[in-house]
Each structure stands twice: as C-alpha cells, then as structure tokens.
From TrEMBL:
GO MF, one annotated term: cardiolipin synthase activity
Group of enzyme by EC: transferase
Domain PLD phosphodiesterase: 219-246, 406-433
Name of the protein in question: Cardiolipin synthase
Pfam families: PLDc_2, PLDc_N
GO annotation, cellular component aspect: plasma membrane
Keywords associated with the record: Cell membrane, Lipid biosynthesis, Lipid metabolism, Membrane, Phospholipid biosynthesis, Phospholipid metabolism, Repeat, Transferase, Transmembrane, Transmembrane helix
Keyword Transmembrane recorded: yes
Gene: cls
Cross-referenced PROSITE patterns: PLD
Amino acid sequence: MPFSFTWSGVLLLINFIIVLIFAIRVLYTQRNIGTAIAWLIILFVFPVGGILIYLLVGEVRVSKKRLARTKKMIRFYDEFAEEYMPSKHFNPDNEIPPTFRGIERMAKQATRLGASSNNSMQLLSKTDDILQSMIKDIEQAKSSFLLAFYIIEPEGKINKLLEAIKVAAERGIHCIILADDVGSAPFLKSEWRIKLEQVGVFIQTSLPVGIMQTFYGRNDLRNHRKILVVDYQIGYTGSFNLIDPVLFKKDTGIGEWVDVMMRCEGPIVLEMAAVLYADIAVEDGVNLQKVKDYLNQQVTQDSGLTPPDDGNVIAQVIPSAPEQEENIIYETILCAIHLAKKSIVITTPYFVPNEPLLLALTTAARRGVDVTLILPKKNDSTMVHYASRAYFPLLLKHNVKIARFDQGMLHTKTLVIDGEFSLFGTVNMDMRSFFLNLEISLAIYDKEMTKKIAQLQQKYLEQSEFITPKGWRYRIKLWGLVENIVRLMSPLL
C-alpha cells in the first residue's frame, strides 16, 4: 500500500517530535521525580499549551546579568561578615546545643552567615501589636531604616505605617524600600509611591516582570522575604506582609489573616541588613557600589554598625534564593526533622510536600516522634487546598496529627523541634518556597525563645480541630478523586 501524505499527519508527527524533545529535556533537567512526572503529564496531555508553559516556568532560569551579580553578592556577604560583624558575636559554636550544631555549620557554609549570640527577641502575634511596634521604631529612627516586603497593600492600617515612613524621610532619615514587582504591584502603582519618592525615599522594584524579562528568565520567581531594619539596631522578620488583615482578600471568604513577626535586637540584625542590601544590589549593577559606599559611610560615624549586647538568644539568619547552589532552607528543614527525638510541630498556610519531606515526617512519626501539623481550614489558594488534602490519608495512617485552624487564614510559618530548636520566617512547606522564591528564616538555638514559639503554636491548636482517620475516611469519595487529580500537579505549586 503506497504511503499516503497528508499535512495533518506531518503536523502531528512534528508535534510529537517536539513534545518528545521537551520530554527528554525534562528527564535531564528536573532532579525531582515528582516534578518530572508532573511536567511529562502536562506535555503529553496538553502538547501545545504544555510546551509554552514549560518554556515560561518549567526551569529555574535566571538572567546571566543577575547570575553575575549574584556571584558578587556571595563575595559581598563575605566582606560584610568580615568588615561589619564583630567576631566576638559570631562564633558561638560551643553554646549551640550539640544536636543542632550541624545545622548551623551547614547553613553558614551555604550562606556565609553564621549564628550569633547576645540577641534579644520579642514575638509579636497580633497585627495591631506588629504595626504599632514597627511604626514606633520608624518614628524613633535616628539614621536609617530599610524595608523589604513581598506584599505592600496601601490601604487600611498600612496607610499609617506609610505615613510614618513619609514623616521620617521628611526629617532626613535615610529610607530604602524593596518591593516585589508582583506582590506589591498595588503599592508600586499608587500615589503613595510618588509621595514617598518626592520626600527622598529610595524605592527599588524586586524581580521585575514583563515580556522582555521572559526571554532572560522566569517571571514567576518572587521575592517573598519580609524584613525591616532600623538603625542597624532593630530588625523584624516573619510571615506578616504589609497588609490590613481584615481587608486583604476579603472577598475570598477565608477570614482575617493571622501572622507573626519577630522583633530582634543584637548582632543578628546585621545579617538581616546584609540580606536586604544584597537583594537591592542584585537588581542593578550600579546599586552594589552604592551599597558599599553607604555602608562605609555609616562605619565612619560614631555609632557605626556595631550592635549592642541585647540578650542571650543564639540565632542565625538563613536566606535562600533560586540562584544559590544549595536549597539551604529546604535542606535545613529536612535535617531538623530527621534530628527530632521527641516532637515536631509545624505551622504553615501552604502544605504541599515532596517525597523527601513526606517521608521525613512519616518516618519521624513511625519512630515515636510526636508530629503535629497546624494548617488553615480555609485557604486562599484552591489548588493548594485540594493538593494538601491528598496527603492527609498517608500522614494519618502513620499517626501524624493534623489540626485545622478555623479562626481565619493562618499564615504563620514555624517549625519547633523537641522544644529546643525552632525555624521562624517566611517559608511555606511547598515547592515554591523551597526552590523558587527568595525567602528568609531565623534558626533559633535557644530553649526559652523556642518555648514562646511553641506556646503560640499551642494557642493555634486550641482554635483548631483535629482530623481523625475515621472521619477523613468517611468523607464523600468524590473529594478524594479531586484531591488526587490536583496532587499530580503538586510538584509545580
């Protein structure tokens, strides 16, 4: 029978070859098995759209210019540590509990930022307390303050903070704001930006998006950090974006957002400043020299950058970014879970684990560790809501406790191990936080401070309901099907 030539057949063959080429690329470039399988499903089920999506967000692509500036940032961290961080504060190895010394060394090797002693910390768990404290410190600033936030929404209670920034700048205080181009789009396009720039506030956009950026790197890499540094003496970080928790996403019906921040004094504030300055400088090659010149100018002043001895908390700043060689916060979380002997308590708004994290949690429970997850009952992300529920049966089977907070959108991100070590910051338990976003966490090697975080977790538990294996098993079966279908895409969430 002679071969029958048709254009539709040729196009089908070309399409198959292109999909096959991309499938091979997925197998070579995606180290995570779950992610690779998810992309293969997308490519073969939606060949045309799947290829376009993969080109946009399939791989962690960072522009060559940004990579070059990132290499300079690594040297900047080294220089910052050597020139501005007093060595007496940054060598507390013997004071760290032996079980967790490896975490400190691993993180320091990856980020150049080690643990420091003589810090004091105040846990702020109510929005009004957070904003009042931040506004008060900004109003009392003597020389400078630096802000980096994923979301800045100029409405409601946040207008008071923006007004405090404006007044401080008018009296000559040096101010820098680093705002994510997507998360803070309402602020960057608002009258507030114009007002603040008119009084001398320097506003830098982080990870700008656009058609041209698509050709050089991914548009969905986001700066998820939340940092405020005042006079190099006071620092804040945690889960709180600059939002009014009542007004933000109020139409979704999830309730008021529940967040926390840690107010810090002591040497650790310098590490927060280093992360913030590095983020500013990496956005523009000119900024790096400006940052160095400004820091040198500060050092020549009487106050310099030397922080006071404010307390006895040993802690460490751990920043992560997609261009780093190691996924250091993800590795730290896994390491901490494997080190647990008695208990693990995690609070996170978005729980979409990969296989290593899921295995770490279930094996911990199987070896007798009391493992508890505290998640919001309602979620602003429908995909995450269903994807996370797909993991509940396996977790419950291995005696992992799952509590669902029903008093609002629990946005707090904390991890407490054995009541002795804690991680506190911006990191969600999902692939985006682990591998794509710029994040920041505090590793806290202090029992008393960790105890306060554990007490906050306990308050969340008192406002939560536990899922029982029996109750979960007798749900409507259709939901299980929906959850498992969405779970196939979970490595991409």
